[in-house]
Amino acid sequence: MDTAHKLEQHRVWLETNGKNGELFTLIGADLSQVDFRFANVSGAKLSGANLSFANLSFATLSVADLREANLSLATLSIADLREADLSGSNLTGSNLSGSDLREANLSGSDLREANLSFSNLTGSNLSLAYLEGAKLKGANLSAANLSKAYLKGANFKGANLKGANLSEANLYGSDLREADLSIANLSGADLGIANLSGANLSSANLSGADLSVAYLHRSNFTGTNLSGAYLKGANLKEVNLSFANLSFANLVGAKLSGAFVQNTIFRSNSGISELLKQDLIDRGAIFENA
């Protein structure tokens, strides 16, 4: 297979808007270990292709069809993958650091142990994707769809998840330190033993979320919907809960000393002792009848 010739024909195809040359099409082909560095393969059809161990750093694959492709352990650092269709693809252990994945479709893809640090995933679709142990430090995931994604143990430290959809996502044991989760949808999410230290969750939806044994030191829950959330035994010391809604939340044994509770809504049967209840009222909390 003369890959260089095919790439040259694709270049001509792009430059002439399809009048000359030929679209790069290698559906189901074995392209493992091929060097695509700096190549422009935008719009290429590579569904089902084997690109494991391939080097695609600095390559342009915008709007490319990579459905169910094997990109395990591939190098895609600083690659242009805008609007690419990577649904159902295998990207385990791949290096996507600094890549542009805006509006890309990664639904159902396997990104376990992948490196997506500082990548741009704005508006991307990662619903039902597997990202266990993935590195997303400093990544931009604003308005991304991560609903029902498996994110156990993933590193989101300092990531931008503003307005992201994380409903019913598994974030058990994930690192979300200093992440921006403002106005994000985390309803029904599993955040057990997750590290949310210094995270911004203002105006987020965490209704029905499980925050058991989560680390919440100095996190911001201003105006957050925590109704029905599981916070049994949670350490909420120094946490900003102002204007938050904790009605129907399970707060049995929760530590709330030093928490900011101005206009925070609680339910009288939330598991809070009468002594703590009065202290919270004195600090501006609102208790509604059950």
Structure notes:
This is Pentapeptide repeat-containing protein. Pfam families: Pentapeptide (PF00805). With 290 residues, the chain is mostly loops. It has a domain at 121-290: Pectate Lyase C-like (3 Solenoid), CATH 2.160.20. It has two helices and two strands; from the N terminus they run H-E-H-E. The chain has helices spanning 3-15, 274-282; strands spanning 265-267, 286-288. The protein has a two-stranded parallel ribbon with strand order 1-2. The protein is elongated. The chain starts with a helix and ends with a strand. The model has no long low-confidence stretch (mean pLDDT 94).
Percent of residues in β-strands? under 5%
Give the helices and strands as they follow along the chain. HEHE
Any guess at the CATH architecture of the domain at 121-290?
Answer: 3 Solenoid
**Overall 3D shape:** elongated
Mean pLDDT: 94
Strand order of the largest sheet: 1-2
Helical amount = under 10%
- Number of helices, where a helix is a run of at least 4 consecutive DSSP H or I residues: 2
CATH superfamily of the domain at 121-290: E3 ubiquitin-protein ligase SopA
Secondary-structure-derived class:
little secondary structure
Give the terminus-to-terminus CA distance.
71 Å
Unreliable segments of 5+ consecutive residues: none
- CATH class (first level) name of the domain at 121-290: Mainly Beta
Total DSSP E strands: 2
Which fold name is given in CATH as the topology of the domain at 121-290? Pectate Lyase C-like
Biggest sheet architecture: 2 strands, parallel
Rg calc:
23 Å
Pfam family, one: Pentapeptide
Protein name: Pentapeptide repeat-containing protein
Organism: Tumidithrix elongata BACA0141
InterPro entries: 5peptide_repeat (IPR001646), Pentapeptide-BTB/POZ_domain (IPR051082)
